[in-house]
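Would you kindly consider the sequence and fold I have copied below?
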Amino acid sequence: MMAMAKLRSVAVAGATGLVGRQLVQRLCADRGVAVVYALARRALEAADPKFVVLPVDFSALPELPPMDEVYLALGTTIKVAGSQAAFQAIDLDANLAVARAAHTAGARRVGLVSAMGANAHSRIFYNRVKGQLEQALAMLDLDALVIARPSLLRGDRAALGQAVRRGEVWGDRVGRALRPLIPRGWRVIEAADVAAALVREVPRAQGQRTLSSASMQGASQNPVG
């Protein structure tokens, strides 16, 4: 008789965000997942029996429960954060702290929501921070690191109680009007596509893999495993 596959325990940091909520939904629907831990600053409603909320202080994380995978979707903007230092504390420091804590708890697979222009040596601060996080995660002893680099995201931030990002709004309007003229990799992408691509690739990837925005387009149309 074939042995049954072990059900996975996973964690999501940034579960209330645009991509984070999509990650939670798809992971809860995944028959190979036993529990989805949401690391959050505040209590959240648990609408699924698999969904377990772990209220945490990202600057002083507690010991995390055993887990196999962690998905990093914490992110903000400099405008919302208030300063470059505050932005870095979330997009770099908090994500890296979660990854290290999850690694200590047994996670050997990491999925990251990064950005299309991520580059640790970029002159653009936003892209440089994103690249520095990718670089730091690559130093961990992992079986798989899957990095999603989406273009501008499409999704209803206002419905999530988040500040609307003007660049995403204008990018979406321009993208809809000029879609046939815009290369696939530069088109606005659904947050659901980014989440679906990560949920699909993290459990099966080996080593480091980067998902381009073009490669993730339409991923949410595929059924959950």
